[in-house]
C-alpha cells in the first residue's frame, strides 16, 4: 500500500472524483481527511469509505475561505498527527457557453474559484509541509486547457485551468527547496456523475442510449474507452505517494490516448 502511514487531505469531496480519490487513498493505507462545504454529505462519504471512523475524518471548508481551509489543516494534524499530501478536486465547471456569449462575471468567477481557490489550498498546507521537510500538492486540471471541447464550449473554464497549470509550475519551483512537490493531473471526459448526466441528456435529445453517447466520445481515444473517475484518482494517488518523490512541476494527462502531450 503506497500510502501506508501517510495522511492525505482530499478537498472537494462529492459524488464523483473527490470521493474516488478519498476511497483510493484509504485503500492504499492512508489516513484521509475529506473536505467540502457540506459536512452532512461528507459524513456520509466518510462512513461509506471507513465505517469504523478510525482512518477517515471530515472537515467542512470552502476553498474561497482561507480561514476554513487553515482550520481543516489544523484539524487533520490534531486528528492524525500530521499531513503528507493534499489533493484539490474542488472546482467550478458549470460555465458551458461559446466565447461570444461569455460575460465578464462568468470569466472572473471561473478564475476566482479554479485558480485563487487552489492558491488558498496551497497556502493552507505550506506551513505544515515546510515544517516537516516536505509534502505533496496534487491539483486537478482539465484537458480543456490544452484542447478545445467542440461539443461543449467552455472557454472560461479552460482559461482558468490554463492559468492553474502556470501557477502550479511556478509554485513547484518556489516551494521545491522546502521539499514540497506540486503536480497536476489533467483528465479528459470522466465517466462519472457529471458526464453521465450529459450523456443522458444527449441520449434523450437524440433517441439513443447514454452508453452510445459515451462510446461516440471514446471513439476519439486511442483505447476507445472513456476513463472513469476512479482511473483519474489513481494518477492523483501516485503523485501523492513517495513513488513520485522526484516528480514535481509536471502535468499528467489521463485521457486514454485522446490527445498526446508535448
Descriptive labels:
alpha/beta, seven-stranded parallel sheet, single chain
Please give a structural write-up.
With 262 residues, this protein is of the alpha/beta class. Helix content is 47%, strand content 15%. The chain is built from eight helices and seven strands, in the order E-H-E-H-E-H-E-H-E-H-E-H-H-H-E. It has helices at 17-27, 39-49, 66-80, 104-132, 155-175, 193-206, 210-218, 229-240; strands spanning 7-11, 31-36, 56-60, 85-88, 135-140, 180-187, 251-254. Strands 3-2-1-4-5-6-7 form a seven-stranded parallel β-sheet, with helices on both faces. Helix 1 (17-27) links the parallel strand 1 and strand 2 (31-36). It is globular. 45% of the residues are buried. The model has no long low-confidence stretch (mean pLDDT 95).
How is this fold's topology laid out?
Layout: E1 7-11, H1 17-27, E2 31-36, H2 39-49, E3 56-60, H3 66-80, E4 85-88, H4 104-132, E5 135-140, H5 155-175, E6 180-187, H6 193-206, H7 210-218, H8 229-240, E7 251-254
Parallel strand pairs: 1-2, 1-4, 2-3, 4-5, 5-6, 6-7
Helix pairs in contact: 1-8, 3-4, 4-5, 6-7
Amino acid at each position: 500500500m503506497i500510502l501506508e502511514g501517510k495522511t492525505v487531505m482530499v478537498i472537494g469531496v462529492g459524488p464523483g472524483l473527490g470521493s474516488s480519490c478519498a476511497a483510493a487513498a484509504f485503500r492504499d493505507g492512508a489516513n484521509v481527511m475529506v473536505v467540502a462545504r457540506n459536512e452532512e454529505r461528507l459524513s456520509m462519504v466518510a462512513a461509506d469509505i471507513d465505517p469504523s471512523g478510525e482512518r477517515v475524518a471530515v472537515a467542512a471548508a470552502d476553498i474561497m475561505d482561507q480561514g476554513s481551509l487553515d482550520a481543516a489543516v489544523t484539524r487533520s494534524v490534531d486528528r492524525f498527527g500530521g499531513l503528507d499530501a493534499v489533493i484539490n478536486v474542488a472546482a467550478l465547471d458549470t460555465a458551458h457557453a461559446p466565447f461570444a456569449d461569455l460575460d465578464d462575471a462568468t470569466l472572473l468567477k471561473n478564475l476566482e474559484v479554479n485558480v485563487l481557490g487552489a492558491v488558498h489550498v496551497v497556502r493552507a498546507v505550506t506551513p505544515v509541509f515546510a515544517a516537516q521537510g516536505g509534502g505533496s500538492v496534487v491539483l486537478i486540471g482539465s484537458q480543456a486547457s490544452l484542447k478545445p471541447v467542440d461539443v461543449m464550449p467552455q472557454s472560461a473554464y479552460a482559461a482558468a485551468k490554463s492559468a492553474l497549470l502556470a501557477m502550479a509550475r511556478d509554485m513547484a519551483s518556489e516551494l521545491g527547496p522546502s521539499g514540497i512537490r506540486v503536480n497536476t493531473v489533467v483528465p479528459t471526459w470522466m465517466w462519472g456523475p457529471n458526464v453521465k448526466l450529459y450523456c443522458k441528456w444527449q441520449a434523450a435529445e437524440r433517441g439513443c442510449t447514454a452508453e452510445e453517447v459515451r462510446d461516440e466520445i471514446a471513439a476519439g481515444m486511442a483505447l476507445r474507452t472513456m476513463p472513469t473517475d476512479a482511473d483519474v484518482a489513481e494518477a492523483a494517488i501516485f503523485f501523492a505517494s513517495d513513488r513520485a518523490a522526484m516528480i514535481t512541476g509536471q502535468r499528467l494527462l489521463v485521457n486514454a490516448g485522446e490527445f498526446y502531450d508535448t
